[in-house]
């Protein structure tokens, strides 16, 4: 899209940086009285490279600072924003805005940095980079409203990034919109040539011949994380069978990380290392149930009880690759990527008889959409599990009223349709609006045999 007003399309990180600096220049010249707010919302699906984009934008801004006036980037990651609000609500209540509060909390031991960043915000010399609004969990709506009611009226240059599903459009009416495009086939081949110079041609042939297309009729490796995972798997599975779906990719990747952990952890320790898979599934499930991305000691204890001290010891010794350390005291960790947490939650639903936070199809919100989408790739066993949790296996008619999130709702319906045990014969969706994204999830059910054949 043309965002600068000077016919320069934002198609690269460099042009995005130019747009950000153009916003600052316009603010300076008009003394904040701009016709359009200097705010941009960039959306993309799970693991599409949003966080990588923020890192590259910061580096680009740093490079421009060496040549002349620039902006100070203030990066706020959604999962930490949520956590700091829960821990220090009194600071957030009294702060000028919630980015200011985040800065005060995050850099509380570095007062010079706090003063510098606050001065940059007060003089409108900062760009607020809000990454992962979809990872704010139960506080997401509060942050979106704060952006609309406080940050935008204050006149800050803002670049926000989020998955599109579940966004409150009313909170982003002042924002210009852009989307992060998937990798082209040429870009995918270039990545493979750099990662696998000798095997690139064979791996690309495998991608074209064996891997299915996604719901947008694109190769699943057009997603950067999927391509990176596949390249890593190809490096260690020479001559062995490769994954055949997105769920297979996550399964192989998580199995590899767990296998590495089990080699390193003392096998005589209690609880036995064989239980590590289940302990992690339960931890991730509990975190997702309470809408959290950042996991602390309290949450680990709530999830696995007396096994918590053992798991925390392994984490502190960096022996659990599926949990990346954020800080040691107090302990805070998270999955390497939200999609890994979501996949482990899908496994927990399938394998551990764990309960969902809701018992109704209509009450599934956007935070659960990708969990169910990944779970669908696991096959009929997941379909049986999610159908049982939502009470959908034995009913002949499913009538959907006003779901909290249509994508999550339709993804769950699609998963249930895999089950040959389902008795569903009629779906009634006439009372809810099914958008394109939700329809893609529902349409995915057409490939399944079994219960879908009975639909009328």
From TrEMBL:
State the coiled-coil residue ranges.
none
Q: Which residues form the NACHT domain?
A: 48-197
Could you tell me which Gene3D superfamilies the record lists for this protein? P-loop containing nucleotide triphosphate hydrolases
Please report a single Pfam family linked to this protein.
Answer: NACHT
Q: What is this protein called?
A: NACHT domain-containing protein
Q: Which organism is it from?
A: Strombidinopsis acuminata
